[in-house]
Amino acid sequence: MNEITIAGIRRGSKYSPNHIGNDAAIFQLAAKALRSYGCVVNEYTEADLSANEIQEPFIFNMVRDWASIRKLQKYENEGKNVINSAYGIENCTREKMTRLLLTNDIPHPQSLIVRTIDDPLPAFKDVDFHNCWIKRGDFHAIHREDVTYVRNREEAQDILEEYAIRGIESAVINEHLVGDLVKFYGVAGTDFFYWFYPSSLNHSKFGLEQINGNAKGIPFDEGNLRDLCNQAADVLNIQVYGGDCIISEDSIARIIDFNDWPSFAPCRDAAAPYIAKRIYSLINESCKKQKRSLI
User: Fold this and answer.
1) DSSP symbols for the chain
2) For FRET with 31, which of 99, 116, 142, 170 sits at 20 to 30 Å CA-CA?
3) How would CATH label the architecture of 180-260?
4) pLDDT digits (tens, 9 = 90+) for 154-187
């Protein structure tokens, strides 16, 4: 097989709140592992992607800017291989993620999707929860205020009014689930899966993990959790993923967040070879399909 040349696009620092170094580290480790396969990896920033055309036929990326996402989607439509898919990255934005998980019966909190300019109180009549999380619907959390815990419907209304002032048009309201908070990382199509309790490792982005308190160690089936997360990755069209779930007292796991290519901070040395292996495998599958189509 001829030498494979791949473009790697790093995440803009704006989209790595409190994790700039961690995001850069997993990107570099994945690029290094790909080079060990004999691949040529040309590295770019999101600014490079915005200013220039990417010539390489294969792209792995950690982008988050909307202009970057749209450009990569254009490349996908033109036949380039993009990992993670830019369509998958868009699927991980809060409103789309919520709709896709619920529609595909992935265990998830009861949720409302509302316009921030509307009075949310009528919508609350259709659900049986008070304590909840208000999350911007149009994107990932960039600022601490993009995910807010509220204790009643009146507080929820205040937060939605603030979102509207900030220009955020939609919000997702998730029921607050009681139980152990578990953070997970995985790579689709491989054996890699890692989970831990953030409360045990003092791991946090905005400090919101404290709401659920210290994990009790509620027993659960790790294999079932891995299968559930891989199902969610398939639904969302994501290869490299991470997220959060709540394990309830009855040992049921419900996904509360799912992200495209997170930092893998607690396990990046172990994860990087699997990420590279998955990227390399998908590229090889694509090359074989192209050869067959030419026959």
Assistant:
1) -PPPEEEEEPPPGGGSTT-HHHHHHHHHHHHHHHHHTT-EEEEE-HHHHHHS----SEEEE---SHHHHHHHHHHHHTT-EEES-HHHHHHTSHHHHHHHHHHTT-----EEEEETTS-SHHHHTTS--SSEEEEESSS---SGGGEEEESSHHHHHHHHHHHHHTT--EEEEEEPPPSEEEEEEEETTSS-EEEE-HHHHT--SSSGGGGG-S-------HHHHHHHHHHHHHHHT-SEEEEEEEE-TTS-EEEEEEEES---TTTHHHHHHHHHHHHHHHHHHHHHHHHHHH-
2) 142
3) 2-Layer Sandwich (3.30)
4) 888 899 999 999 999 999 999 999 999 999 999 9
